[in-house]
Amino acid sequence: MPPEAPYTPLGRLEELDRLDLAGVLAYLRIYLGNFLLDADVAMAVAGRLLREPGLDRQPQALRTLAYVLGKAAQAAPFDPRILDLAARLTGDPGLARRAALLAALPTDQAAWSVARCLGKPRLLAGRRDWLAGELRRHPGHAAYAAQLLALDFFAGVPPDDRLRGFRPPGELAPAWNRLLFCHLAETGHDAAALELWPQVEAAGQSARDEAALNLAAELFRRAGDRETAQALYACSLVQDPLQEPVRRRLAELAAPFAPDASLPETRDVAVCLYSWNKARLLQQTLETLARTNLGRARMRVLINGSTDDSLAVAQAAATLFPGRDYQIVPLRVNVGAPAARNWLLSLPEVRQAEYVAFLDDDAEAPDHWLASLLTALEAAPRAAVAGAKVVSPGRPAMLQYLYRTLAVARKGLIRLTDPTPIARYDTGLYDVVRPADTVMGCCHLLRTAHLEGAPGFDIRYSPSQVDDVAHDLELRLAGRRVLYCGPVACVHHQSTGISFGVRPSGPALGNVLGNDLKFHAMFEPRLAQLEKLVGDDA
Length: 538
Hints:
Layout: H1 12-17, H2 21-34, H3 39-50, H4 59-75, H5 80-90, H6 93-103, H7 121-137, H8 142-155, H9 173-186, H10 190-202, H11 210-222, H12 226-239, H13 244-254, H14 263-266, E1 269-275, H15 279-290, E2 298-304, H16 310-316, E3 326-331, H17 337-346, H18 348-351, E4 355-359, E5 363-364, H19 369-378, E6 383-391, E7 399-401, E8 406-410, E9 413-416, E10 433-436, E11 443-447, H20 467-477, E12 481-492, H21 506-523, H22 527-533
Parallel strand pairs: 1-2, 1-4, 2-3, 6-12
Antiparallel strand pairs: 4-11, 5-12, 6-7, 6-11, 8-9, 10-12
Helix pairs in contact: 3-4, 4-5, 5-6, 7-8, 8-9, 9-10, 9-11, 10-11, 11-12, 12-13, 15-16
């Protein structure tokens, strides 16, 4: 990419095309430092490597290509196109045989557009019925069965009744059992997954499949068998030492994070919320918050020019916090999220506190949230911020936001990593404490001593989005640390940005893209400083 290239909003494929080979390899390395590799990211990297001039003369690029295609084949074990490509690059005869068996099945190419149905109930129901019909016409069609199972996965439900009697051809049975096990284990159907696990092991699938081993590890951990969980994770790391999340999780299981429940009582904390026209969700948030361990924290609730019953809800909620310093800050107009945060921070009693916690008005935090975030910050004096693991409502809970790190910082392209793997459920793998460059602002704790001299939340990102990301990054550039505290699972009821399953309206999309452009323009003058953060694990 020429250095004078202008900023443009890009997707992952375009981003990778703007990077040279060294940049692509660094991009992948940083991603692997955050998350396990899924099929979408793996195939995006594979596609970029396949377009690299002189690829056959680049041994490292060829090894990386074989690696990402192997990961894609694990994640999509019944996609003949991926399997065929992976088999040709890796030389794996098992993949080649499976690809040939699947390629011989009569498959309508339209079947591969399953992802386009997500978020569209009528289209989704139609595709489900179509796949079921094809299975009746072609019993044993493993590719169609896998796609029907994928629709069940995105819905977080057990396999469709129409899959109960499915029997794939004999040679495909081990791969099908493994796929079914992964579905059950990740979506929280533990009893059925534990029952199927011996078949997966007996078929030898687990011997070379770190993805299944990782799910099995958390399955046994949830069953109370920590020793087996550690052994399975250790085996997974032998298969693939590049799995940094597994390495961190194994260390966490060996020395579990233990929140100090006394800290909320012994530290000076201000808990702050702000709300705009979400009376019902605000009431739910305050009721949940009242049941958590707040110690002696004072509370401030800013009503941001709401025209619904939010003010009355906040006033009535005072009875939920008897004997606590609970005050309401009513504003006549909606000043937006960043200004609301700054307003609360400007209150003398908030600024004088040792710590300030911000919670969104549509977030539910667990009982130990404050003790855990305090424990994480107390153990890291340089850390200015600690944030929670954020999940969507429902069971199983889908990961909504974990943490982000800088992936690319160059002229025309400043990119943070994804906030979470694409469409994955919360199995416990990311229940670790680790450094990051940014965490989500819906449930995070700030050390006020580190806010002195640092910019506030930038009102140019009003009314919402990106201000919390930019604030964390400003603190990182000032030499502070940001921590992700995975043992705190915060349920966030509204995902307002661009994320899996969310289709913002025209104005909302314009705000997101506009703030993305602002973010780039505001940080590009400090590229030299940002470059030092790329890949930094401080």
